[in-house]
Amino acid sequence: MDAKARAGRRTSHTVGRVPWRTRIVALIAVFAAVAISFNAAAATTKSAAASGPVVKVGMITALTSPISSNPDVKDSLLAAVAAFNKRGGAGTTHAKIQADVCDTHGDANTEVACARQMVSDGVVATLNDLTYNNPSGVVDVLQGAGIPRIAIGGTDVSEFSSSVSYPVSAGIIATYIGTAVGFKQDGRKKICLVRTDAPTGATFRGFLTPMFTAVGINISCDIAVATGATDYAPYVAQVQQENPDAVLISHSDSVTTQLIGAMAQLNAKIPLGGAPGSFTLDTLRKYKALMKGTVLADSFPYPAQVNVKNFPGLKQYFADMKASGKTSLSAAKLKATDLAPWIATLAFVNVTKGLDSFSPATVIGALKSAKDVDLLGLTPPWTPSTPGFSVFKSSSNHFVYISRFNGKDVVTDKQPVDVTQYIK
């Protein structure tokens, strides 16, 4: 089956619902520990600052939690909102965008409480949501209120099938498929999976295997690394015993950094790869002799200055973050995960540019009618209503970009990969 046909496929929610949900939640929880055409002109050439009525948008995410602490995503969203307001705000009335951010602390009850806050505060949409402990509870609240969730980081079948979910990213599943494609391009066919030791992580290898097999990659070993580990040498020894061509790391950036440090001490020169959130640029550069060639994949180009030539939209992103005045958002300090809130804001502004009044219903109407939205070339043109694939009904973006660390910078391939060809 070709990619186009595969993109339009549907599968039942009922059959296999439990394993899909269990595996997807496990996968996202791992990652959470670890997350210039006319439209471009519309986003960058408005001269008048927003002067119209206030339009509220929300974000539900874990800024602080036992497994994931990333307060920078709030700062990134606030910086994005400020920048787009300076360029004219939203819609035909130049509405002033106002951000409403709710920290779930990674707690199931607080996730639902945050969803209720969005309803009571009157947001017209949420941007860059990430809820992984009670996603179905959040769906019940926001779908019931008809509030669209733009650039949602889907973690559950309920979110993938929700009528108000509008992902801009192809998601974490696509990220790992992209990494596998990168390994295959580099001639690495036998890989070892290094992951969290959480109970749900035990299903991870089985979940990835069919897709990796379709790519031409064999997952030859599965090593669980304890989050609280203090000695990483035994894990490195396990990997060396398996003698893989490469290692796929699916863990937090702190654990990944310590594991790489142990590999350097033991002179274990094995190619690595994974999601950008697992590898900090500081770690890549500190251990550059070991890390050169590391494969990273994501739905957007890696946010590095070296990629501006091929992806000029990044230039606007860097400028907007710098304008915030926050040191954590300077080009040298930005994290890969900081790009997502800005992309979500860009998507909201470009999709709603023709609206003269804002409500959840008018925003959903704009999302349903929008076609080939150019997000500054940072992903292929986006049509929010495009059918998803397999159980991922709302995932209208099916592409990922593959990047590699060259010893100094993370360089992104210009040509994206359509992952639907690897998912049945």
**Distance N terminus to C terminus?**
9 Å
Number of strand segments? 13
Spell out the CATH superfamily of the largest domain: Response regulator
Characterize the main sheet.
Answer: 8 strands, mixed
Top CATH class of the largest domain: Alpha Beta
Portion of residues within helices: 25-40%
Mean pLDDT: 87
Beta-strand fraction estimate: 5-15%
Number of domains: 2
* Rg (CA only): 20 Å
How are helices and strands ordered from N to C?
HHHEHEHEHEHEHEHEHEHEHHEHHHEEE
- Classify the secondary structure makeup into a structural class: alpha/beta
> Uncertain regions: pLDDT < 50 for 5+ in a row?
1-46
CATH topology of the largest domain: Rossmann fold
Label the overall shape: globular
Number of helices, counting only DSSP H or I runs of 4 residues or more = 16
The CATH architecture of the largest domain would be 3-Layer(aba) Sandwich
